[in-house]
Amino acid sequence: MTHDGHTYEFDLTQIAKLNKKYPFKYYHDIKVFKGRDEYDKYLSEQKNNPKFLFDYGPQFKYEGSFEIEFPKNSKFPHPKAISEFLTPYIEKIVSKDDYTLGYVLNSKNMNNRDQYTMTIQGSKRLFEQLKLDKFKNENWEPTVEDAYFFYKR
Which residues contact residue 122 at a Cβ distance below 8 angstroms, ignoring those fewer than 6 apart? Predict the structure, then answer.
C-alpha cells in the first residue's frame, strides 16, 4: 500500500486473523469533483466525521483535455507522425511532464477513417496558446475526477 509517497507492507495472515476475531464493518461513497479546491473542502469536512476512515483521492494532474483533428495524408499517415509534429509546438508552451498526447480509438476516429483526432490533456493555458496554421483546438473539457471515501458502519 502507498500513502503520501511512502510504501507500507502488511502481513495479510495477521489481518485475516484479526478480522475473524474483530470483524470490521465499513462502507464507501464515491464522489465526483471538478477541481482540487472542491475535493479539499469536502475532505476537510469528512475529517470532522468520527466515522470517516480514509479516502482514495483524485490526482487532478491535468486541468482538462481538448482535441485537434488532422487529415490522414502523406504528411500525417498515422498518429505517431502527428505526435512527432505536435510535440515541439506543445513543449514550447509547457514541459513534457505537464501534458499527455494520444490517439483515442473513440467513435469519431473509428467512423471517420480520413482523419485522426488527437487528444491532449494539460492546462487551459496550453489549449489557449497552442496555435497551429490550418488546425483548430476543439472541445475543451475540464477534468472531472472521482474519489472514494471509506467510513465505519
Answer: 62, 63, 64, 65, 90, 94, 98, 99, 100
Q: Which residue has the cell 476475531?
A: 21
First to last CA, the chain: 23
Summarised one tens digit per residue, pLDDT across range 102-130 is 999 998 999 999 999 999 999 999 999 99
Q: What is the CA radius of gyration of the chain?
A: 22
CA dihedral (48, 53, 59, 63) positive or negative? negative
Model's pTM, two decimal places?
0.73
H helices of 6-78, where?
12-21, 36-47
Contact 96, 120 (CB under 8 A): no
Mean pLDDT over the full length of the chain: 93
Q: CB of 137 within 8 A of CB of 66? A: yes
Measured in residues, the chain has a length of 153
Q: Provide the 3-class DSSP secondary structure of residue 146.
A: strand
The answer, yes or no, to whether residue 1 has pLDDT greater than 70, is: no
Residue 80's H or E segment, with its range, is: helix 79-90
* Residue 33, pLDDT score: 96
